[in-house]
Each structure stands twice: as structure tokens, then as C-alpha cells.
Amino acid sequence: MTTETPVLQAPATASVLKNLDAVRAMIKRHKLNDYIFSVIGLLALVMALLTLLVLFSDLVMDGYARFNLEFLSEFPSRRAAKAGLLSAWVGSALVMLVTFLTAVPMGVAAGLYLEEYAPKNWFSDLIEINVTNLAGVPSIVYGLLALGLFVYILGLGQSILTAGLTLGLLILPIVIVSTRESIRAIPVAIREAAYAVGATKWQVVYDHVLKYSQGGILTGVIIGMARALGETAPIITIGALTFIAFLPPSPVTDVAPFINFEWLSSGFTVLPIQMFNWLSRPDHAFHINAAATGALIIIVTLLMNGTAIYLRYKIRKNIKW
Amino acid sequence: MINPTTPIKAESKDLNFFYSNGMQALKSVSMPLYENKITALIGPSGCGKSTFLRCFNRMHDLYPGNKYQGQIVMHPDNTNILENGVDPIEVRMRISMVFQKPNPFPKSIYENVAYGLRVRGVSNKRMLDDKVEEALKGAALWNEAKDRLQDLAFNLSGGQQQRLCIARALATDPEIMLFDEPTSALDPIATANIEELMSELKQKLTILVVTHNMQQAARVSDYTAYMYLGELMEYDETTTIFTRPSRKETEDYITGKFG
């Protein structure tokens, strides 16, 4: 029996029983790593959350004076206490609508095509790399592209349509990537089962692939929309107005055909631009408005992400592989 | 010896198969499937038995680069189902398949069984109801499932799920049913149920089953094929294969000396 330090390695061949104390000491030492890492991880998490929490509570404390319905129902004004977000949130909502209607069909169709129909070769690999890269392109670059393409070449003007299309392009990679990832999560066995009963490719795609991946796709769409909601740079680049005291024409009218598309070409402003505008004024009273707007954007973003998590949970509940 | 007058449902003729990586998985396999009989494919892992089975419903077509050579001829119409002009979907409408692991769709029990019919354009509710009932009865699942047809298929046990997959494959009245190690994920009782079911099903159709379990082959099949390294080593009546195989390799495999 030696009285030196316990064996450093677990005895490979000798029985554990003979070295029981040494093995126990070793397990303890190894478990220390678990403990150290969990402390580091927790610390990192607390730091990240704390930063967000401090920022958010700062905004709320600065802006809570304006948390009332008038703030949402009033147009901007020269008097800070009377100025409201009406044109900004309506503008944001309409721009989001256009973004949704362009990014979702295009993104889902592109993702579906790449995953199910496109032949797998160097060209599709190239496209895949580029789509992923697009997600990392700075948003102002999209703004410049939109200014050149939508505003000048296509002559769409500095309109809701231009802004919606721009943000649609911006979140397109997010929608494509999330579509592809959720399609890939469907097990081969399920596809083969569908093919084995005689389904065509489109039947497999429509009856199975799309149905089982919609939770993931939806999550991607909502997260993309939440990002688009806060985007400022590309909207400034295409020239959104910063002071608007009117609403775009209503999309729904009381005369046939009850739908009106004039709003698409209307000038507009959006929440982050309104916030930016108020922030750049010297008068502190406007800064309160900006803080309130910032808090509102964060709340809406959190709500959207929360909805995404809930929907994914709800849809995934019925799907177990 | 196999009685030469036994009616043949399908037969492979000089079938070679190449995976997209160039590997030849089947080497000139020629063997008949007898009508209303169960034919078992046995052999060590990687011998090509699953590959051979999956030729029968052109499953390999789903993955680019795979190549068939030779024929699989269906009787009585003498269609070579591997021919270029024959759509794999048409083949799959005649020959259905049950997989190794139960793979029900994340849909209701009813929709799982009805799917094959829906794919064929059946939308008449009465007809679907009748067919679903018939298929579930055929798969010995009706009594357990009739009160919960709208339940998710995942709520069934593993053995029930596999019987559901059999019902799904059965609902479309196939001529041949392929079973790819259908009980390897099941417990002994569920296995016995499936084997009993297969013996009943052969009244109506022809069965080709891949199995790793030699007792299973001996219990359920009428004919047995022993494959090794992509080649068909021996093919005969099951009793002959298991009592007096003509080749030494077959004997070594079934007595457990090898494999």
C-alpha cells in the first residue's frame, strides 16, 4: 500500500474495488470541471440578460410618462407632450404587411426548391453559401440597393411599397435558411413512407414536408419580421419622411371593390425613424418620447418572439420523431 | 426442390444494382417471387438483401446516381418495372412497403391509413371509411383503434404503429408487399403478432420479407433466399434451406457458424 498521491488515471485493468478511494477522488476532481463551467456559463448568461434588462428599464423609466393611449393616437407635433406615434406605428404596420407578403412566399418557395427540387451539385452549393452570406450583409447595403433599384430604376418612389420590399429582401435569407432547416429536420423515413404509398413529389411536399415544417418556418418568419421592425438604416437610405402628420389611404374602403392599393405608394414613417427623429432634437422632452418609442419596439419584438416560441411549441407538440 | 408449376408473381432477372458511389450492391440476382407465398431474404449485414427489396418499389430512384441493370418482371402483365418508361410511382401503386422502424405520419390513425387512397384521388368519405376499416381489420388493429381513429398515430404502441403501417400499405390493395425487417424494433409479443399477420396476408397477396432473424424466416416464410456479398447464394423452399441446404456457406450461416 503506497501512501503517495492517489493514482491520477483510472486503473485500466485492475479492478475499481482495489482502488476505490483513488477512483472516488478522481471522479470528484473531474466533477469539479462541471461545477466550474456551470458557474462561468451562468455568469455569462446573467451578464447578457442584465445588460438587456438595464437598457430596457432605463427606457421604461425615461419614457413611462408617455405610456398612454394618446401617445398612440396622436400625430407628431412640435410640442413634445402632444406628439404621438400614430403615423409611425401605422407606417410600420403597413410596411410589415408588404414585407410579410413578399418575404414569406418567396422565401418558402426558394427554400423548398433548394431543398426538394434543385439538383445537388456545385451550383446549388454556391447558391447555398451565398444565401447564408446574404444574411450577414449590412442592412444599409440593402438600403442602397433599394434606393437604386426600387426608387430610381423601377420608379416606385419613397413609398411603403419600396420600404416593404426592401425589408422583405433583408429578411429573405432568414426565411430561406429557416425553411431549409425545418425541412431538413423531417426524417427520411417519413418521406420514404409517403413515396412508398405512391405519392408524387408535390404530394409529398404539400401533404407532408410543408405541414411538418411549418412550425420552424413560422418561427423564422416571425424572428425575421421582428428584425425588420427595428431596422432603421435601409429605411433612412431610401428616404422615408421623418415628420408625417397624415395617414396613408386606408387599404380597405367602403366602396366596391373595398380594397385600395393607393397606400402602397404613399409616403410614410416607421417607429425606429420616429424614434431617431425625436432623439436628434435638442429638447429633452422629445427624448422622453424617444425612450417610450424604444420601449414599445422592444415590447413588440419580445411579444413577436414569444409568439414564435409558443407557436413552435404548439405545432411541435403533435410531431415526434 | 421448388415445384416448377408454382405460379410466379414477379421475378428478377440478372439484376445488378450500383449505388451512386459506384459500389455494386447486387450481382446478377435472378429469383422468382411466388404468388401468395412469403419469400424471406436472409444473409449477413451488407449482403444486399435490403437493397434488393428496395428495387421492387424503385425506392432507390429517390436518391440521384443509383443505377439498375437487368429486369424485374411482374406477372401476369409482363411489365419490367425497372424499365425507363415505367414511372416509379406506378410501381409503388402496385407494390407497397413496410419499413424497419414504424414510420407513421404525424397525423391521425385514420389519415395514416387513408393517405394512400387520397394520393390516388379518392375523396368519397364513405369509400374512405370503408377502406380504412377494411385495412385496419386486415392489419388486426381495428379492435384497438376503432374508437380512436382521430387520435394521433404516435399515441399507439410500437407494435400497434407497425400494424398501422401495414394497414397503410394494405389499404391500396397492393399485389406485392415488401417488409424490410419489420420486427427488428419490436418486442417478442408484437413480433409474434406481425408474423401471424403476414401469414394471413399471403392469402391475398405476395410477400417479400428481409429479416435478420433466422427463426423468423423459418417460421413465416415459404421460400428463403440466402444472399452474400450481393449475390444470391441459394434459393429454395424454406424447409429445404433450413434442414438440408445444398451449399456449405448457407449451412454455416444458418447454423450460426458465420455471420
Q: What does this molecule look like?
A:
The complex is a heterodimer of chains A (321) and B (259). With 321 residues, chain A is mainly α. Helices cover 69% and strands 0% of the residues of chain A. Chain A is built from 11 helices and no strands. The two termini of chain A are 54 Å apart. The mean pLDDT of chain A is 87. By secondary structure, chain B is α/β, with parallel strands linked by helices. Chain B is 35% helix and 25% strand. Chain B contains 10 helices and 10 strands. In chain B, a hairpin with a 2-residue loop joins strand 9 and strand 10. The chains are: A mainly alpha (321), B alpha/beta (259).
Which properties best describe this structure?
A: 321 residues, globular, B: 259 residues, alpha/beta, six-stranded mixed β-sheet, 10 strands
SSE blueprint:
The complex is a heterodimer of chains A (321) and B (259).
Chain A: H1 20-63, H2 69-73, H3 86-117, H4 122-134, H5 139-153, H6 160-184, H7 188-196, H8 201-230, H9 233-238, H10 271-279, H11 284-316
Helix pairs in contact in A: 1-11, 3-6, 3-8, 3-10, 4-6, 5-6, 6-8, 7-8, 8-11, 10-11
Chain B: E1 8-18, E2 24-34, E3 38-42, H1 49-55, E4 67-74, E5 79-80, H2 88-94, E6 95-98, H3 109-119, H4 125-138, H5 142-145, H6 158-170, E7 176-180, H7 188-201, E8 206-210, H8 214-220, E9 223-228, E10 231-237, H9 238-243, H10 248-254
Parallel strand pairs in B: 3-8, 3-9, 6-7, 7-8
Antiparallel strand pairs in B: 1-2, 1-4, 4-5, 9-10
Helix pairs in contact in B: 3-4, 3-6, 4-6, 6-7
Describe the structure in brief:
With 321 residues, chain A is mainly α. Chain A is 69% helix and 0% strand.
The total beta strand count of chain A reads 0
Strand content of chain B: 15-25%
Poorly predicted segments of chain B: none
The DSSP helix count of chain A reads: 11
Biggest interface, CB < 8 A = A-B, 22 and 26 residues
| Computed CA radius of gyration of chain A, to the nearest angstrom | 27 Å
The span between the termini of chain A is 54 Å
SSE order of chain A in H/E notation?
A: HHHHHHHHHHH
Bin the helical content of chain B: 25-40%
Q: Taking all residues together, what is the mean pLDDT of chain B?
A: 93
Strands of the largest sheet of chain B, in order across it?
Answer: 6-7-8-3-9-10
Overall 3D form of chain B: globular
- Which geometry of chain A do the CA atoms define? globular
Kindly estimate the percentage of residues of chain A that lie in beta strands according to DSSP: under 5%
What helical percentage do the residues of chain A reach? 55-70%
